[in-house]
């Protein structure tokens, strides 16, 4: 997500920060490159013009040009304007209304509307503890109702029984009545879509809205369609008055122009983004975090949240205790690999860490294969319990048996054992404070001398978080950042003063911190 744009903007802005002083010509030239980068990312022309004009007006002021670090000031201005473009504050689905709360899902055919409806239902049921009823109003697409019923079972919520021959409005009214009688908190109405915006589509959606009076009208748009998604959003908002936008397939959009344009063009917040096909691949959209990631400043808060959701605290504590005793067997390694996969792999983690853009080419040059984790876990699963606990038992005959069971060559087993020995040695060394996390990661994944300087600092010229930004981050957690469960590492992230020393999640011991 935003990978191409992030690379371009980081390169342009780093050129400014390396200069001792800036002239108006320097700023104008840089804004010309920023304009080109945004247009290549498929950002709407009107949004690009507004963005670059605002940045230029602020950047050529006396405060910037005469400041001690003018390049850093320009970066801060770009960051602030990006946040403004994306919506300033995160916006969530509003359920503050008398039950049952109706949520109307609208959008074009093929945008992922039905799947997104199920994802949101799962989120409301599991996180907000609401009783959700799903109802398909799509009477035209073959098996559309059956699809939503199957998805409802998959996410463990209830769906409205299918009655043939009813119109969309009749189904919507029946869904609202069933929700009232059944004591449901939320009713999600999945409307029909078309390949293009037409009068029939809009009329049907308008009739359903008039009959159900939904508290939320969410537009589902495909991020990969670029400017078409922006035009679709404008059309739906004009006719129906959408309250929020859900962007799908953001994991496949390296440009990100639709997300950057949507909020600025419609004035409606992007509430959620789909980042995969699985039913749990749905994330809240936080403008400040997205802006930070675009400019290569990482997203520590999202990393902490993801760790809290995926890491088993008790298991992590047991692993940490074993490490303190100098023990790290293949069972532990398998657990670390599984947790790394849940966190999005090495690539997913690096996208959230500040300064990772500086070593991106080095990581790519290592040809890191994310599927390696699955193969290595398969190898460990083919071992006996005794072999996992005592790798020294693995002689040639045992290796051949394990290789046959896992469907790999003996060389793969030797690589795994070498990796395990490296990690075991690393745990001991880090426990005594002899080696940094950056060096450890480098040795584990073949990055030669490790990550330059250990854990990356904030890139030169990247602005420190303001007190307002810090307060906004801490607001997400009720006033302070959440402490990580015991045993989940302890490496404090540098370069983020004022955040109370947030700890980088150790993946249940994958990146343990130094002993104190």
Automatic annotation (TrEMBL):
It comes from Methylorubrum suomiense. The gene is ffh. Its EC number is 3.6.5.4. This is Signal recognition particle protein. It is a peripheral membrane protein. It comes from the Bacteria. InterPro entries: AAA+_ATPase, P-loop_NTPase, Signal_recog_part_SRP54_M_sf, Signal_recog_particl_SRP54_hlx, Signal_recog_particle_SRP54_M, SRP, SRP54, SRP54_GTPase_dom. The keyword Repeat does not apply. Part of the signal recognition particle protein translocation system, which is composed of SRP and FtsY. SRP is a ribonucleoprotein composed of Ffh and a 4.5S RNA molecule. Involved in targeting and insertion of nascent membrane proteins into the cytoplasmic membrane. Binds to the hydrophobic signal sequence of the ribosome-nascent chain (RNC) as it emerges from the ribosomes. The SRP-RNC complex is then targeted to the cytoplasmic membrane where it interacts with the SRP receptor FtsY. Interaction with FtsY leads to the transfer of the RNC complex to the Sec translocase for insertion into the membrane, the hydrolysis of GTP by both Ffh and FtsY, and the dissociation of the SRP-FtsY complex into the individual components. GTP binds at residues 107-114, 190-194, 248-251. Composed of three domains: the N-terminal N domain, which is responsible for interactions with the ribosome, the central G domain, which binds GTP, and the C-terminal M domain, which binds the RNA and the signal sequence of the RNC.
């Amino acid at each position: 997500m935003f990978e191409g744009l992030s690379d371009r903007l980081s390169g342009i802005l780093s050129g400014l920060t390396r200069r001792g002083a800036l002239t108006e010509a320097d700023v104008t030239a840089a804004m010309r490159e920023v304009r080109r980068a945004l247009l290549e990312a498929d950002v709407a022309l009107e949004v690009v013009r507004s963005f670059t004009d605002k940045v230029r007006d602020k950047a050529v002021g006396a405060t910037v040009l005469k400041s001690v670090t003018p390049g850093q000031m320009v970066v801060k201005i770009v960051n602030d304007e990006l946040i403004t473009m994306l919506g300033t504050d995160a916006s969530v689905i509003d359920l503050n209304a008398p039950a049952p709360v109706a949520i109307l899902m609208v959008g074009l055919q093929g945008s992922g509307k039905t799947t997104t409806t199920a994802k949101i239902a799962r989120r409301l049921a599991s996180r907000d503890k609401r009783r959700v009823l799903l109802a398909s109003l799509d009477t035209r697409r073959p098996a559309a109702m059956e699809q939503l019923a199957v998805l409802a079972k998959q996410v463990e919520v209830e769906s409205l029984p299918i009655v043939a021959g009813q119109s969309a409005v009749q189904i919507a009214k029946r869904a609202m009545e069933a929700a009232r009688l059944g004591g449901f908190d939320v009713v999600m109405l999945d409307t029909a879509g078309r390949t293009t915006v037409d009068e029939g589509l809009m009329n049907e959606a308008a009739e359903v809205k008039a009959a159900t009076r939904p508290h939320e009208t969410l537009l589902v748009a495909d991020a990969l369609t670029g400017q078409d998604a922006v035009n679709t959003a404008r059309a739906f908002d004009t006719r129906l008055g959408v309250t929020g936008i859900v962007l799908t397939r953001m994991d496949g959009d390296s440009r990100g122009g639709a997300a950057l344009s949507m909020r600025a063009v419609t004035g409606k917040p992007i509430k959620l983004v789909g980042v995969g096909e699985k039913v749990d691949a749905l994330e809240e959209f936080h403008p400040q975090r997205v802006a930070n990631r675009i400019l290569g400043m990482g997203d520590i808060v999202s990393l902490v949240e993801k760790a809290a959701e995926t890491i088993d605290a008790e298991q992590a504590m047991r692993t940490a205790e074993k490490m303190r005793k100098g023990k790290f067997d293949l069972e532990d390694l398998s657990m670390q690999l599984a947790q790394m996969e849940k966190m999005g792999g090495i690539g997913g983690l690096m996208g959230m860490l500040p300064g990772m853009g500086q070593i991106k080419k080095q990581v790519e040059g290592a040809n890191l294969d994310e599927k390696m984790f699955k193969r290595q876990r398969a190898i460990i699963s083919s071992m006996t319990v005794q072999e996992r606990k005592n790798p020294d038992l693995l002689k040639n005959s045992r290796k051949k048996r394990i290789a046959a069971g896992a469907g790999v060559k003996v060389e793969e087993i030797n690589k795994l054992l070498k990796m395990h020995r490296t990690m075991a040695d690393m745990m001991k060394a880090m426990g005594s404070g002899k080696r940094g996390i950056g060096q450890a990661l480098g040795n584990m994944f073949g990055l030669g001398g490790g990550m330059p300087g250990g854990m990356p600092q904030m890139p030169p010229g990247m602005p420190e978080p303001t007190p307002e930004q810090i307060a906004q981050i801490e607001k997400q957690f009720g006033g302070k950042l959440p402490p990580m469960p015991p045993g989940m590492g302890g490496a404090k992230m540098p370069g983020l003063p004022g955040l109370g020393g947030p700890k980088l999640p150790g993946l249940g011991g994958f990146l343990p911190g130094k002993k104190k």
